[in-house]
């Protein structure tokens, strides 16, 4: 009776060769870029209950938000984290209200923003961890706005780089290579690799003296935009 596998002897070990016509299957894909579904957000729950002081407004420029409360009287510790929680939303109208609401709050928050930074880290991390292209691009643009929204916000983010930057490191080089073609995503600022580089540079510029070394620790391939 013939053997189905041949045997090779070397250095005292017996190695069985694979069967004829068999295929070697490689390890499964790691799935680093695979999109991950997000859980229902508190933002959506509050919106559906009508608990936000906002309404949809239409004009010749498109849709916008009308606020029913002055920003000076707004409880930023309550509302800003809730709107950041909505970064995970991709469906209309939740995505629109969350995104536009954040930008409005950052435009008018001033000194109210800095004390709320610790409450924003988990919503930011959750949004980035979805690996969803739309959500990530929106979140990166929000982070850039956040850094510029008030004094010392960039410095306040540095201790949280270990929570924010791991996904940056995964997607940093995820740029579209179209050769001589036109990358329309660049016009709309939807190229994740470019947005990550822009955001890291802003983190370094506004993060104070410890920003670069903390970025470099999490993203070894990052090159300073300030050191000649």
UniProtKB/TrEMBL annotation:
Query: Sorted alphabetically, which InterPro entries does this protein's record hold?
Result: ARM-type_fold, Parkin_co-regulated_protein
> What GO cellular component entries does it have?
cytosol; neuron projection; vesicle
Which superkingdom, per the lineage?
Eukaryota
* MF GO annotations: Hsp70 protein binding; Hsp90 protein binding
Record's protein name: PARK2 co-regulated
């Amino acid at each position: 009776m013939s053997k189905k596998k041949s045997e090779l002897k070397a250095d005292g070990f017996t190695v069985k060769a694979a069967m004829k016509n068999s295929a070697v299957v490689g390890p499964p894909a790691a799935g680093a870029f695979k999109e991950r579904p997000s859980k229902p957000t508190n933002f959506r729950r509050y919106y559906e209950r009508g608990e936000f002081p906002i309404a949809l407004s239409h004009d010749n420029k498109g849709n916008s938000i009308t606020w029913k409360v002055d920003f000076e009287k707004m409880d930023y510790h309550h509302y800003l984290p809730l709107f950041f929680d909505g970064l995970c939303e991709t469906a209309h109208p939740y995505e629109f209200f969350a995104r536009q609401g954040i930008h409005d709050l950052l435009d008018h928050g001033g000194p109210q923003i800095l004390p709320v930074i610790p409450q924003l880290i988990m919503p930011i991390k959750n949004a980035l961890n979805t690996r969803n292209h739309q959500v990530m691009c929106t979140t990166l643009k929000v982070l850039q706005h956040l850094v510029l929204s008030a004094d010392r916000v960039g410095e306040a983010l540095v201790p949280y780089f270990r929570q924010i930057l791991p996904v940056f490191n995964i997607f940093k080089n995820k740029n579209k290579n179209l050769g001589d073609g036109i990358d329309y995503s660049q016009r709309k600022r939807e190229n994740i690799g470019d947005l990550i580089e822009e955001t890291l540079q802003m983190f370094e510029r506004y993060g104070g003296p410890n920003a670069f070394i903390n970025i470099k620790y999490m993203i070894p391939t990052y090159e300073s935009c300030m050191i000649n």
